[in-house]
Design goal:
The complex is a heterodimer of chains A (394) and B (224). With 394 residues, chain A is of the alpha+beta class. Chain A contains 13 helices and twelve strands. In chain A, 58% of the residues lie in helices and 18% in strands. Chain A has a six-stranded mixed β-barrel with strand order 2-3-10-5-7-6. Chain A has a two-stranded antiparallel sheet with strand order 8-9. In chain B, the strands form two sheets. Chain B has a six-stranded mixed beta sheet with strand order 6-7-8-3-9-10, with helices on both faces. In chain B, strands 2-1-4-5 form a four-stranded antiparallel beta sheet, with helices on one face. The chains are: A alpha+beta (394), B alpha/beta (224). Chain B: It holds the Pfam family ABC_tran.
Chain lengths: 394, 224
C-alpha cells in the first residue's frame, strides 16, 4: 500500500470518530502546551536574570565574609572601613572599591511611609555598579567623610513618598532620623516580581551611626581589566585574611554568579519540563488505550482488508499512522496553545517567557515519538490478527 | 486443458481449543479447475467453512498439501499469502463486508490499493467493474444507501476487480430475499460463463443444485 493512501485512510478513521479523536488529542495537547509554556517561562526567566547580572557591569568582583558555597549560611561581617582602605591600596585606585552596609528600614515623608532597603555606601557606588541618576546629585566624598544625613532615593521609594512631586531638597526620616533628599535614581523595574527600585542610598558613615555599628557588609571592586580579575581576587582575599585571621572571605566574579544562577535555572527549567513531560506521557497512554479500542472495534474491517490482500505490515502501518496523526495534530495544537499561554504570561504577569525554536521542534518531535511508541503495540496487534478469526467477528 | 487453479491433497485442519485438539477437516482432496462451478454443501459444523478458508488462502492446513495458483501455501509467509489472495482469489461473504463509510467505487477499488495501483487507475477499473455488475448508477453511494442485493453486487465487483482465477462465495444469498438471491446467483453464473471459477459454499440445497458439481461435507470429510 502506498504511504499517501495510508495517510488518507488514517485521517478518515480519525474523522469518523471526531469526538473521541479530539478527547484523545486533548491529553497530548495539554502535555505539549505545558512543556512549551513552562520551558518558555524557564528560558525567559533565565534570560532576564542573566541580563540583570550583566547589567551590574562587567569585571566586577564581589567580596563577602564567609565561604560562598551551597548550603552555607552567610557569616556575620567583621569588615570595617579600614579594610576598604587596605583593599583600595591593593587595587591601587580608591574609586574602584565600593563598600556597602544594608538594612531594611521604614522611610517616612510627612504622613506617607514606605519600606525600603537602606544602603550605606561610598560616593563611588554609581561608578562601580552601573547606576544612573534621574534627578539631583549623588553622594559626595565630603558627604561620606562627614557622615552627612543626605539620601538618594530609588524610583519606587520616591514615588511612594512623594507621588509626582519633586523630592529634591525635601526631608525624610529613616528609622526616625532625618535625612535630606539630594537625588533620585532612574527606574530599574522588577526582577522575578521583586521591586528593585525600593532603596535609599545614604553615606556609609551615616548608616553606621544609625545602625550603631562600625562594620560594613561587603565590598565590590571594579577591576581595570578582565585579565586581572583572578589575580586581584587572590590579593584582596589574602589582605583581608591577614587583617581578620579568624574569618574566611570569598570573592566572586560576575561570571561565577552567572554560572551558578544559570545552573540553578537550568535545573529548574528541566524539572518544570519533566513535570510537563509526565502529562505528555499520560496523554500517550491515552492514545495507546484508544488505539487498542479502535483495533478491537475494527476487527472485521481488518479481516476484510487482509482477505483482499493487505499484508500484516500494511495493517500495522495504517494503525501506526493513525496514532502518529493523533499525536502530531495534538502536538501542533498544543504548541499553539503553549505559545499563546507563554505570551500571555509574559505580557500580563511579572514572569518573563521566551519561546525558542528548539523547544517547539522538541515538542513536535516528542509528540510524534509518543505516537510511534504508544501506537506500536496496538498496530502490531492489528497486523497480527488472524484473518479467519477477524472475519468471523460480528 | 490448463492447470487446476487449486489442488488440495489429503488436507487436514485441527484447531487447538484450550489444549484440546479439535479436527475440523480430516483428509480432504479436491481440485478446482479453471471455469469450474462447484458448490460445497454441508450442515453447520461439517467443515465447509474451514475448507473455504483453506481454499481461499486465509488459513493453512495442519497436514497435507495445498496448491493455490500452483504455489504450495506451506512455503509462504503471511505477507506472501496476502499477495497470493490478492492476485488469485476473490471473496464474497454472506454479510457483504463492505467498508461502511466508503463509497461503492472505493470499496471495489480496495484490493487494488494493496497492489500499489494509483488512485486514478483504481477508480477507472472500479467504475468498469461496477458497470459490469449493473451498478454504474451507484458509484458514489455508501453501503447504507443501497439495498442488500446492491451491496452484494458491490462485493462481487470488489472480488472481481483484481481479475482472480477463483471466486469464493460463502453463503452469498444467505442475507438476501429469494428474488434478489436469484439475481445474484445469475450474476455469478454469467461471470462463470466468462471464465472465472466459482466456488459456492452453502447449506441451501436449491442453490447448490444450480452448480455444475456438488461436494457434500460431513464431519470434516467429503462424503460425496
Amino acid at each position: 500500500m502506498r504511504l499517501a493512501e495510508a495517510w488518507r485512510v488514517a485521517l478518515d478513521a480519525l474523522r469518523a470518530n471526531r469526538l473521541r479523536s479530539m478527547l484523545t488529542m486533548l491529553g497530548i495537547i495539554i502535555g505539549v502546551a505545558a512543556v512549551v509554556a513552562l520551558v518558555g517561562i524557564g528560558t525567559g526567566t533565565k534570560g532576564q536574570i542573566e541580563q540583570q547580572v550583566e547589567g551590574l557591569g562587567s569585571n566586577l568582583l564581589l567580596v563577602v565574609p564567609g565561604r560562598l558555597e551551597a548550603g552555607s549560611a552567610p557569616a556575620a561581617s567583621t569588615m570595617d572601613l579600614d579594610d576598604v582602605e587596605a583593599v583600595a591600596r591593593v587595587v591601587g585606585d580608591r574609586d574602584r572599591v565600593a563598600a556597602t552596609i544594608a538594612s531594611g528600614e521604614t522611610v517616612r515623608a510627612g504622613s506617607r511611609s514606605t519600606f525600603a532597603s537602606m544602603q550605606g555606601v561610598l560616593e563611588n557606588t554609581p561608578d562601580v555598579f552601573v547606576r544612573r541618576l534621574d534627578r539631583g546629585t549623588y553622594l559626595s566624598r565630603t558627604d561620606v567623610t562627614t557622615g552627612r544625613r543626605v539620601a538618594v532615593l530609588g524610583a519606587g521609594t520616591a514615588t511612594a513618598l512623594f507621588g509626582d512631586r519633586d523630592p529634591i531638597g525635601r526631608q525624610i526620616t529613616i528609622g526616625g532620623v532625618r535625612f535630606r533628599v539630594i537625588g533620585t535614581f532612574e527606574r530599574l523595574g522588577q526582577s522575578l516580581g521583586v521591586d528593585r527600585d525600593s532603596e535609599v542610598h545614604v553615606p556609609v558613615t551615616a548608616a553606621q551611626r544609625l545602625l550603631g555599628t562600625d562594620r560594613i557588609d561587603g565590598l565590590a571592586i571594579r577591576a581595570p581589566d578582565r585579565e586581572r580579575i583572578n589575580q586581584l581576587s587572590t590579593a584582596v582575599v589574602s589582605v583581608l585574611s591577614d587583617r581578620h585571621p579568624d574569618t574566611d572571605f570569598s570573592a566572586v566574579t560576575q561570571e561565577q554568579i552567572l554560572g551558578v544562577l544559570g545552573d540553578i535555572l537550568g535545573v529548574l527549567t528541566g524539572v518544570l519540563a519533566a513535570i510537563a513531560g509526565i502529562s505528555l506521557l499520560v496523554g500517550g497512554v491515552g492514545v495507546s488505550n484508544i488505539m487498542l479500542v479502535s483495533v478491537r472495534e475494527r476487527t472485521k474491517e481488518i479481516g476484510l482488508r487482509k482477505a483482499v490482500g493487505a499484508r500484516p505490515r500494511d495493517i500495522g502501518v495504517q494503525f501506526l499512522l493513525e496514532a502518529v496523526l493523533l499525536t502530531t495534530i495534538g502536538g501542533v495544537l498544543g504548541m499553539a496553545l503553549g505559545v499563546t499561554a507563554a505570551l500571555l504570561v509574559d505580557r500580563f504577569s511579572p514572569v518573563p517567557a521566551a519561546i525558542t525554536w528548539w523547544s517547539l521542534a522538541l515538542a513536535f518531535g516528542v509528540s510524534a515519538f509518543v505516537g510511534i511508541v504508544f501506537g506500536v503495540v496496538p498496530a502490531q496487534r492489528a497486523g497480527r490478527l488472524d484473518p479467519v478469526v477477524a472475519l468471523r467477528t460480528e | 486443458m490448463t492447470a487446476p487453479a487449486i489442488v488440495a491433497t489429503d488436507i487436514s485442519r485441527t484447531y487447538d481449543l484450550d489444549g484440546v485438539s479439535v479436527p475440523a477437516l480430516r483428509g480432504v482432496s479436491l481440485s478446482i479447475e479453471p471455469s469450474d462451478y462447484v458448490a460445497i454443501v454441508g450442515t453447520s459444523g461439517s467443515g465447509k467453512s474451514t475448507l473455504m478458508h483453506l481454499l481461499g488462502g486465509l488459513d493453512r492446513p495442519s497436514a497435507g498439501t495445498l496448491l493455490i495458483g500452483g504455489r504450495d501455501v506451506s512455503t509462504l509467509n503471511p505477507a506472501e499469502m496476502a499477495k497470493l489472495r490478492n492476485e488469485t482469489i476473490g471473496f464474497v461473504f454472506q454479510s457483504f463486508h463492505l467498508l461502511a463509510r466508503t463509497t461503492a467505487r472505493d470499496n471495489v477499488a480496495l484490493p487494488l490499493v494493496y497492489r500499489g495501483i494509483g488512485r486514478r487507475e483504481r477508480r477507472e477499473r472500479a467504475t468498469a467493474m461496477l458497470d459490469r455488475v449493473g451498478l454504474s448508477h451507484r458509484l458514489d453511494h455508501r453501503p447504507n444507501q443501497m439495498s442488500g442485493g446492491e451491496q452484494q453486487r458491490v462485493a462481487i465487483a470488489r472480488a472481481l476487480v483484481t481479475d482472480p482465477s477463483v471466486l469464493l462465495a460463502d453463503e452469498p444469498t444467505g442475507n438476501l430475499d429469494s428474488t434478489t438471491g436469484q439475481s445474484v446467483l445469475g450474476l455469478l453464473e454469467s461471470l462463470n460463463a466468462e471464465g472465472v471459477a466459482v466456488v459456492l459454499v452453502t447449506h441451501d440445497r436449491e442453490v447448490a443444485g444450480r452448480a455444475r458439481r456438488q461436494i457434500v461435507m460431513k464431519d470434516g470429510v467429503i462424503v460425496r
